[in-house]
Amino acid sequence: MRFFSDNAAPVCQPVLDAMLAANTLDTAYDGDRWSKALDGAMSDLFETQVACLWVPTGTAANALALAAMVPPHGATICHAEAHIQVDECGAPEFFTHGAKLLLVEGHGAKLTPAALAETLGGIRDDVHQVQPHAVSITNATEYGRVYTPVEVAAIAEVIRPRRLGLHMDGARFANAVAHLGCSPAEVTWRAGVDALSFGFVKNGGMGAEALVFFKPELAAATRYRRKRAGHFLSKGRFLAAQILAMLEGDVWLDNARAANAGAQLLAQAAGERLVQPVEANEVFLRLTADEAAGLRAQGFDFYDWGVGEARLVTAWDQGAEIVAPLAQAIAAL
Amino acid sequence: MRFFSDNAAPVCQPVLDAMLAANTLDTAYDGDRWSKALDGAMSDLFETQVACLWVPTGTAANALALAAMVPPHGATICHAEAHIQVDECGAPEFFTHGAKLLLVEGHGAKLTPAALAETLGGIRDDVHQVQPHAVSITNATEYGRVYTPVEVAAIAEVIRPRRLGLHMDGARFANAVAHLGCSPAEVTWRAGVDALSFGFVKNGGMGAEALVFFKPELAAATRYRRKRAGHFLSKGRFLAAQILAMLEGDVWLDNARAANAGAQLLAQAAGERLVQPVEANEVFLRLTADEAAGLRAQGFDFYDWGVGEARLVTAWDQGAEIVAPLAQAIAAL
Amino acid sequence: MRFFSDNAAPVCQPVLDAMLAANTLDTAYDGDRWSKALDGAMSDLFETQVACLWVPTGTAANALALAAMVPPHGATICHAEAHIQVDECGAPEFFTHGAKLLLVEGHGAKLTPAALAETLGGIRDDVHQVQPHAVSITNATEYGRVYTPVEVAAIAEVIRPRRLGLHMDGARFANAVAHLGCSPAEVTWRAGVDALSFGFVKNGGMGAEALVFFKPELAAATRYRRKRAGHFLSKGRFLAAQILAMLEGDVWLDNARAANAGAQLLAQAAGERLVQPVEANEVFLRLTADEAAGLRAQGFDFYDWGVGEARLVTAWDQGAEIVAPLAQAIAAL
Amino acid sequence: MRFFSDNAAPVCQPVLDAMLAANTLDTAYDGDRWSKALDGAMSDLFETQVACLWVPTGTAANALALAAMVPPHGATICHAEAHIQVDECGAPEFFTHGAKLLLVEGHGAKLTPAALAETLGGIRDDVHQVQPHAVSITNATEYGRVYTPVEVAAIAEVIRPRRLGLHMDGARFANAVAHLGCSPAEVTWRAGVDALSFGFVKNGGMGAEALVFFKPELAAATRYRRKRAGHFLSKGRFLAAQILAMLEGDVWLDNARAANAGAQLLAQAAGERLVQPVEANEVFLRLTADEAAGLRAQGFDFYDWGVGEARLVTAWDQGAEIVAPLAQAIAAL
């Protein structure tokens, strides 16, 4: 059983159905009716006028979002363990043409307003240093932690005087919203977020993510950058259809709730072993090499996380019932 | 009826079937068995050891190929009407970090050895001028013209003394091979091609193209560049499956033959109106504004091409029978 | 005797004197009083508020100017033989992060409003094509031709509706103004120029050029780009001092007048041989290989210009008297 | 009296004399006899065949050196307080097209082999992470600390198995060598250094630094990059002349010894106040706000360094005698 990544999960049926339905004659690129429906569907979901672009990967969404806010001679502030820093092979630097990532530490891969303020305070306002133009936070974080609307707003408050943009890497945005029980608007633009990488691939999609601009004017140049980066698929209707299928009937929320529920079951079994509170669909726990080997011998596949720790990830198709065997195996350690 | 672009055609059934079949649990990125099978399948097809990377778009394939051969301070020589110059919003410049495209004229968007030699001769070998590191040709060209193996070899001959790389944009490679009736090897590496963007999307695929390196060592850095550019899809198995499905049983050739046959029927109907010989699946013909309006009134959709000309493109699903009504309408003009 | 380039000429005495005078204790970078005086001195010269940055080379000035106006996914329109296209090893592409140069033909390396309008008309307003954001003209041109204020204004008129920036490469701006007899303002901002690379090195300076922004707000980001490009010299006072010395007492104009006068003498001697009207300090003339060899045997050094033509360049230290021997030698051919 | 930066010091007489002597007719760019003599002079100094390029700034030298060793999808490991990270406005990212700087902590801005090994060990060898291609160390460091040949060799030892390049930022290389009393070869290529930014501007030069490649083959592409970056001055003879003048008769060493001696006198006066051992020409000491104000009231100018500390920098013209008043003032605190 797979617990190493939600990236490896299958595609859910509504997405497959929508793709098959999209296989009818239509115009190329984003001239089709599915692509044209995206802005409206996302604006409805977020209760405000947004501009939404489909892209095939979260890396593309993140890097395009940053490029829309940060000039080549600028910088983005993010956590030292942010996906954009450690897992995208320099995509932000590629798309922004070399803007720096300025790194901040913090438990659970979360930025705190205090740490952010300290970093900002250490940057001289002269031409010898790159000046920050944006902050990027991940929600849920790389450690499965969730920023509340209040926490996001506190970060926005710190950067407002310097007019920095605020980007949210939402590769697991659905898991965060499912955990929070708030509206998508509450934890994004109402809290100060300017651009969201809204992930679907980890949550049952196949190859489509939504880049949502809450300041729609940021989208204009991004449309050129998307094409220039080779991310403007000629049969874009198949990407738009995926996203629309996920939004319809709240498939995105249902899928995330299932994954979160699976993680909660594992968390209960892990008890004192937990390294991080479990708020989304990732469980970090202490596990000796022997214990890890034991679980693997029972057919459970997952990543070690440094020495003596492990990471378990549940996906949309791994609700509480499905993960019960692993929960029992952990409890039995 | 659609004749404006093969980009807008539907996805063929073998590709859809393969995608559905790939929707089983497997590892992420390119660790799955479909992705792992690509090198072998392509090496078989090309009768030599190649390295093959899937990417979602032809623009990504082209730009990555050039980045593998041309440093930022170098240049690629291509036709003035090459897709990489006029239709990719500067993707080659983005991926190569600013390498120039040096443009050469030529009928039918074809480079001739003579024109190429003249361009090379005009470049001073000093640090004030960017030095060419590669030549890119499109086969079939943007005007539906086909380079024969002999013609490709003649170009390779011109650039060999300067050790330039040779890239082939094969967005319609299948149509070219179908026209030539030669082996894929003959018109590529045996004629001197180092890297091929092997297109499937215009030919019945959904969102997968193959970047084929005949010098496999060029692939190593490209794997990083692909990730960095956001083109390393986490569910890459769905891209690999598309390509494998197209290769199996020569679907790629059958589809291209159908499209070519449709174009031939239109060519016969167009007769003296033809502006270019029809060798692949594009037909360029003289058409007055009134004639164009007349065809459109009958439900045929296509692009004007400058003043007094038009472009008709047939796709894999538009064989001779399907295009017969348009052929008759043209003949009746 | 040197006629191959004004780049090779010595540095004039006022510049040397000013540099020696600047060798006193002062602050670093551009905090010194010479650097601080630049904006004022240039604003006086141009009769309007400008922002002026020193840089060590014309290539840096040109590339920074374009980077201030053109995004990476945009383009600059220039002449096919513009220095920025053929002699800067891709500096514009480096500084703009890959923005294209779209090339226009024209006699004497001059852009005409008609050719410019035709180029603009051929660019589709969609995301597949890079959109022009600026035009760059060289005054005096690479063929020693001069744009009049009326000609510059006509170009500005063409691009105004599309809000393109207008850059003037003034490596030989002094020679152009000396020829025109107009005010510097007249042929720049009053005619629609937004940024000028004001050259001093070819005209008696050592290693300092002025990048003059007539829209001072363009300078803000450029200050970061200058540092980032390694062009923010810590002893910048020696660059500022050079420029101020050239402005003081109109040394820049006197030097240019001398060079132009030398060129005029050569032009008179060349008579029917001239390929281009001589308006600045460059003379292009027909010369057989034997004739060229003959002149070289007499000690005159210059460049061949293709087959059967040659280029003679006079510098600030080569007024009419100095060039008389060459003029006589040409007349005697 | 200036103690805030050696950048602000005047130019020494031998450099001025050499520049005046270079003001004779010669060819442009690096075709002159001074530029041509650089390789030989540096090869003599370093007792091995090197390739040497002049550039106007240390930032350009550093960034070009890194671009010669690190691809855009790679990384350079350096200290978190390295000049290339905190004081060059992203020049390394600009010249390498976005390669990351991976930061390591260490006292006195020195990298230790252990810290380096730990950083290397934490980088997964997969396409999701940028792979290090070079290490950059500063000698003397930003805190006036000096790497010995043994220390440099220990760093080289760590990175040899991964074939990383080793760059030395030698903005104050002269001060380091003067302190070490070793040969320039010993602390560079013999210890494993591949490229050196050899600084002269802080040490009595005007605007010329030497980029020295101990692997001369690295210079070839760099010559194009230098031009492309606008750093190929047309009157390059004035840069070459500066460097040659500094080398002749060991002016570079004499100047550095004087600056170091000045710093030693200050160090003795500072005694227990010292925060760092004084090994070059920088003195970091504890100083209360009142004490700092007191010194400034006596006419001594310097930078605060965080809270309760200050940085004093001596220059080539500030030997022991010149700095005696400040030493006395410190002792009297």
UniProtKB/TrEMBL annotation, chains A, B, C, D:
- Keywords of this entry: Lyase, Pyridoxal phosphate
Keyword Cell membrane present in the record's keywords: the answer is no
Q: Which residues form a coiled coil?
A: none
According to the entry, every stretch annotated as the Aromatic amino acid beta-eliminating lyase/threonine aldolase domain falls at 3-287
| Presence of the UniProt keyword ATP-binding in the record | no
Gene Ontology MF terms in the entry = lyase activity
Name of the protein this chain belongs to: Beta-eliminating lyase-related protein
> What is the scientific name of the source organism?
Sphingomonas qomolangmaensis
